[in-house]
Amino acid sequence: MFDDSLARLLADRFPPDRLAGWRDAGVVERAAWDEMAKAGLLGLSVSADHGGAGGDFRHEAVLLRRLGLIGAEGWGVPLHNAICAAYIEKYGAEEQRRRWLPRIVSGQLICAIAMTEPGAGSDLQGIRTRARRDGDDYVISGQKTFITNGQLADLIIVVAKTDPDAGSKGISLIVVETAGAEGFRRGRNLDKVGLEMGDTSELFFDEVRVPADNLIGGEPGQGLYQLMKELPKERLIIAIESLALIESALDHTLAYVRERKAFGKRLLDFQNTQFVLAECKTEATVARSFVDDCIERYMAGTLDAATASMAKYWVSERAQHIVDACLQMFGGYGFMNDYPIAQMYRDVRVKRIYGGTTEIMKLLIARTLEA
User: What is the pLDDT of residue 370?
Assistant: First the structure.
């Protein structure tokens, strides 16, 4: 029922021409975030006690899929909902939940999480951003890059070292509310190959002073533990996004080959077309079964890091393969921006990179071979 109502709402509110305007602008208009909030889709899995809809990750998965199917790749609602709000609700003190979650649900605060740095991606222990304690404050200094929602974010969860000498136990998550934050600066909105509607930014923290109460959980040194506990969910999210791209690519391609003719026959009547799409459909079905199983495991609390890495790696790789095969079916038209498959071809490429590259996923999986 939720899926059906969501499909109707998104189709009505966010038609293709509106999405195209966001891609041209390089950012989703703030009004669209407000519309999502009014529809109860921000803070979808935040508890009702803190103003949310009281859903769970299954609802977030439905939203992820539906955003992918309408071509809203790059809109950072899943990050806002299922990652940033979840960090605060799961690890924040009750006072922090009361302070931030209602405003996250209402759309008053748009969220981002600042992990990646120019010199540190998957190796979070290599970050250089520092947060030193000064009385009742933390003073944050450093630079972040590739930050989703970076141009719009009002609340940024910053991954910083509170004790540079403590290794993995010296990393903490600290919230920066950007309004009036002296020393906080947004860099340029980065020019990407795909996901153009999503603002992705450089962020600079030049002695940014925030209350010590903004440390998530209240105890320093818990950041890496918190990140590692949530990364399997982030990787599952990317697998769900990749699956939506697969499904959308197949839908558009099947519609095209049923109508397009060559040498007096529909493209679908050629055996090559049938065989290629049969392979794609089989891989899509296998991917769907695996992702659904991972969602069940996550809901049961049994999704481990290696399995999430398998889902992220394999489904993102299959997505790029399938989107490429589908684009080939369009011939020259597939290379034209008039057709959605061209946008999918751009959007799918980053799935193998962000949230941990395919190579990092394989490394994590390989570590379990000796177990």
Answer: 78
- pLDDT digits 0-9 by tens, 23-33: 999 999 999 99
At 135, is the secondary structure helix, strand, or coil? coil
Its pTM stands at: 0.94
Angle at 166 (CA atoms; ends 163, 150), nearest 5 degrees: 50
**Fold topology of 225-366:** Butyryl-CoA Dehydrogenase, subunit A; domain 3 (1.20.140)
Which is the catalytic residue, given 73, 117, 177, 234? 234
Q: Is 234 a catalytic residue?
A: yes
Instruction: Indicate the DSSP class of residue 219.
Output: S
Longest dimension (CA), the chain: 79
The mean of the pLDDT values for the chain is 95
pLDDT value of position 167: 84
For residue 247, pLDDT beyond 90: yes
- Single-letter amino acid code for the residue at 361: M
Domain range list for the chain: 2-109, 112-221, 225-366
The DSSP 8-state label assigned to residue 124 in this structure reads G
pLDDT of residue 64: 95
Judged against a pLDDT cut of 60, whether residue 328 lies above it is answered with: yes
Structural fold of domain 112-221: Butyryl-CoA Dehydrogenase, subunit A; domain 2 (2.40.110)
Domain 2-109 in CATH 3.40.50.800: no
DSSP string of 39-59, one letter each residue:
TT-TTTTS-GGGTS----HHH
Q: From CA 284, how far away is CA 40, in angstroms rounded? A: 30
